[in-house]
Each structure stands twice: as C-alpha cells, then as structure tokens.
Amino acid sequence: MARPTLIAGNIAVENRRARHEYAILETIEAGVVLVGTEVKSLRSGRANLAEAYAGQQSGELYLFNAYIPEYQVKTVFTHETRRPRKLLVHRKEMRRLLGAVTREGMTLVPLAIFFNDRGIAKLSLGLAKGRKLHDKRAAEKERDWQREKSRLLRNRG
Questions:
Q1: Which residues of 60-70 are buried (b: 16+ CB within 10 A; e: fewer)?
Q2: Is 9 within 8 Å of 45 (Cβ atoms)?
Q3: What is the pLDDT of residue 5?
Q4: What integer pLDDT is reported at residue 156 of this predicted model?
Q5: Where are the chain's structural domains?
Q6: Rounded CA gap, 82 and 105, in Å?
C-alpha cells in the first residue's frame, strides 16, 4: 500500500489534530537534527507528533515532546524517545517566527515529518493561532458542506 505523499516527499508521521485545534496561517519547512536510530524508527512510521510543539531554547529553535520510539532491532546505540530536537532554519526566518510567537500570541505547531526527494527528514512547521470552540464547529460545518457539495455534484453529472 502506497503512503500518502506531500509535494516534497513521503510522510513519516502527521499531526492530524493540529489542523482542527489551530488555524494554520503559514507553513515552513525545517530540517531536523536526528540520530541514526531515530531516522530508522521514523521510516517505519511509528512516531507521534500529537503533543509536540516548537520553541526557543538557548537562542535556537527546537522541537519538544515529539515521540519517536526506539528502533526495534536491538542495538547498542539507542536514542531517548522524547528528547528536544534541534530545528534547522535560517536565522532571519527564526527571528521572524519567534517574534510572531511572542508579539502576536501565536504558536509553532509541527504538522508532519516527511522525507524529501533526497531521503532527508524534514519537518513541516505551521505558524498557528489557537481556535475557539465555536471556530472549530464552524470549520467542521464548512468542511462537511464542501464534502456534501462535491458528493452532490459528482452524483448529478
């Protein structure tokens, strides 16, 4: 069975709750500093981004609380499952993102980890604003209407 793909490559893990909980205003592609067993574990597709977030630590951008399980093949070199992982973005872009987070009350939400054409793991990071309950309901209503509309048009012609 083929994996769903982003424009840039194969998705290893996706945060589906993020688009429901937040209004994504902008997406950024960032590199992630990983160790070998983390990459192997990501390729098997068992990671979880549900509770993950990005933030600043010692002047750098990091991914916190992302769960990448230990690689199943017993090796001497294992990794910590929820360690902070450094994100690789341009300094100017990092300043802009962190400025938006501090000034405008936005947050940096990881949307997906995927492998690009060269096989390098990348993180799709969204600059997002939290949704209220009524906003979530309205978005769900709009999504249902679009689905119903497409179904009606497909059946009609």
A1: ebbbebbebeb
A2: no
A3: 39
A4: 82
A5: 10-131
A6: 25
